[in-house]
Structure formats: structure tokens, C-alpha cells
Amino acid sequence: MSGVAQGGRDDSEVKALLPEDAAVRLQSLQLAQGRATLVLDAGGLDAAARAQLERTVRLALAGSVEEVRIAMTADKAAAAAPVPTGPRILAVGSGKGGVGKSTLSANLAVALARMGRRVGLVDADIYGPSQARLLGTEGQRATAHDGKLVPVESAWGVPALSMAHLSAAGQAIAWRGPKISGALLQLVDAHWDGAEVLVIDLPPGTGDVQLTMLQRCKPAGAVIVSTPQDLALIDAARAVELFAKGGVPVLGVVENMAGYACPHCGETSDPFGCGGAESAAADMGVPFLGRIPLDIAIRREGDAGTPTAAGTGPRADAFAALARQVAAWLDETA
Ligand SMILES: Nc1ncnc2c1ncn2[C@@H]1O[C@H](COP(=O)(O)OP(=O)(O)OP(=O)(O)O)[C@@H](O)[C@H]1O
Question: Which atom of ligand 1 is nearest to the CA of 299?
């Protein structure tokens, strides 16, 4: 479907504004609400050349659209070929950082495992991995076999792979270069033998890792995490849009850090507001998957590597309720 930019310009007119070096690298262009989102093939370009390409595109489109978003893929040829993976991939994303996406990914995986599902966990936050800490596997290192990584086992029935598990194994499998996309693919295309679903904890935002995920890993679905604040919800809407445009069904939005139960008096308050994600999900036309309370015990348990979902009580139940919905979706879409 063609979009229309500021001043009534359509896709082809905007494309015509691009300098030739950018036009030949253009993989896709989308126009919506005055915003142009371009995916450019940056194969063979070093960091300086990528920055220069981005500057020329922004300059060329300035005044013609209100906002320009540019994503660069590393390699056109690589982008064409999907990675064959056994398990179905469930991406957990958020537009904004710090909303509890890693905490939610770990607990969702553990809650699914408790229901008897065979689930693995990939920490796609290449530069800021946190799953080794959340699952209590910090001291473990992944091994490699037949050129592929072997995930580490956690105590919660969830095998996992994270950059934090790789320092030794990285050398053993001849790391395929510094590209972040390559790193992600090695985590995904590993020995996930027997797993029916891989939960992937994505870094926040809509950058290289997300694009690699969409183009090469073909997620079966995505869960979006948001806190109740407006700013987080605006970014959540962007994440929903990114997956929807990539043809990935969005299972729905989870509201994290909703409702603070005071550990002293038991009174519940809503420091970040309440209900924002539910109405935002309705606006976005995606299901609302429920609330996870803001509870200091969830942070403590995460820091201690003993995921909340492995325990009992209302906060574990909140993750179990989410896992039931995901399990139902796995069955419906099998
Ligand atoms: N429901 C919750 N109640 C209390 N603390 C929480 C909750 N969810 C997450 N946290 C805490 O908030 C902090 C951020 O969580 P987390 O690292 O999971 O977020 P993230 O979205 O993955 O962050 P990043 O953008 O850095 O990847 C952590 O200290 C975590 O323990």
C-alpha cells in the first residue's frame, strides 16, 4: 500500500528525492502520518560511510516529510535467506528501555516450562545481556558442537543463550565477525533440540537486532511490554507497528509495573498510572494480555537469579496467567 507524505507526496516521489547512492541501497520505504521509514542495505559500508549515507538521506528528505527513520541492514544477500530454526519464535519487545522486558521474558519462559512446555530463551540484548543473571546461570559458559552453540541449562527447566554465556564458546566456534546481526543469528540457530518455542528477549527500540529478527528469524508472534506511562505507551505503539509491518502477529500488550502493593501497609497505589496499556492496546487493535504488579520482590528475585514465576503466590500467578494465554496461542497456531 502506498503512503502519502507531507504535501501529498507519495512513495515514488519521495524515492525520487533520494541521491543515487542511497536509492540503490533502498530496500523498503514506508510513509505514514508524515513519517518516512527507510530500510537501507549497508552491506560493505564501514561506520563512517553508514553515517554519511544517513546524513545524505536526511538532507534529501528534509522539508518533504516531518520525520525520517532509517534502519540499515548489514548485508542484502544475508537478509534474503531465512535462518532455518526448529522452534517457533516468540519475540518479546518494547519500544522503550527499562520497562521490564527482560524480567518478563525470563518469567514467561519459566512459567511456560512449569506448564510442561518445552521452551528456550534467547537474550538478544547483545550489548546489555541480563538473562544470565535473571536465570541464575551467570557462571556458566555455552559449549559448541558441529559449529553451533549448545545452550546452557538453568535450574528452571529453561535452556538459555546470552552473550554473557559466550566468552569461551565464542572462540571455540570461530565467531563470525563483529556484526550484531551475526551474533543474534548464532544465538537463535543453536542446538535448541526439542524446544517447541524460543522466547527472544529483544533489546528496546527498532534497530538492527529487531530488523534481523524480522527478516531472518521470522518470529511466529510478538509480545509487547509496556509500563502504564504515556511515553512508554507511545513507544509500545511503535513496536507494535514494526512487528505488524513485518508481518508478525502481535499476541498483545502486557502492562508491567502496574499497581504498587506497599510491603508495609498492603495498600495498592499506581505510581505510573493504571489501565493505560489496556486502553492503548484497544487503540492499537491488539489484545491486552494482563498486568504484572510493581513489586520489589520481583526485582529482588530477578537480581538473585530465582525467577518469580518459579515460586508461588499472586506475583507468580500473574506470570502464570500470561503463560496460559501464550500456551493457548501456541496451540491455536500449531
Ligand atoms: N514488575 C516489576 N516489579 C518490580 N521491579 C521490576 C518489575 N519489572 C522489572 N523490574 C525491575 O526493573 C528493572 C528493569 O527491568 P528489566 O531489566 O527487565 O527491563 P528491560 O526492559 O529489559 O530493560 P532494558 O531496556 O535495559 O533491556 C530491573 O531492576 C527489574 O528487576
Answer: 31
> What's the gap in Å between 161 CA and the centre of ligand 1?
19
**Which amino acid does the sequence have at 109?**
A
Q: In which band, very low, low, confident or very high, does the pLDDT at 117 lie, cut at 50, 70 and 90?
A: very high
Domain-located, residue 83: no
Same domain, 34 and 149: no
Cα separation, 281 vs 33, in Å, equals 19
**Stretch 78-105: mean pLDDT:** 79
How far, in Å, is the centroid of ligand 1 from the Cα of 170?
Answer: 27
Same domain, 32 and 56: yes
What does the pLDDT look like over 123-145, one tens digit per residue? 998 778 899 999 999 989 999 98
Strands 221-226 and 143-145: unpaired
The model scores a pTM over 0.90: no
Task: Note the pLDDT of residue 173.
Answer: 39
**Nearest CA, atom 9, ligand 1:** 100
Q: Which helix (H) or strand (E) holds 226?
A: strand 221-226
**What is the per-residue pLDDT across 169-213, written as a single tens digit (0 to 9) for each?**
444 334 343 467 778 888 999 999 889 999 999 988 777 778 888
Is 80 a member of any domain?
Answer: no
Domain identity same for 22 and 139:
no
Number of domains in the chain: 2
pLDDT band at 161 (very low <50, low <70, confident <90, very high): very high
Residues 6+ apart with CB under 8 A from 256: 99, 100, 103, 104, 225, 226, 227, 291, 292, 294
By most ligand atoms within 8 Å of CB, the mutation choice from 96, 102, 202, 294 for ligand 1 is 102
Do 293 and 200 fall into the same domain?
Answer: yes
Ligand 1 atom with the smallest distance to the CA of 105 is: 18
If phi over 0 gives left and psi between -120 and 50 gives alpha, with beta otherwise, what is residue 18? beta
Whether 100 has a binding-site annotation, put simply, is yes
Question: Which is the closest atom of ligand 1 to the Cα of 99?
Answer: 21
322 C-alpha to ligand 1 centroid (Å): 17
How many angstroms separate the alpha carbon of residue 302 from the centre of ligand 1?
A: 9
What residue numbers bound the domain in which 22 lies?
Answer: 6-73
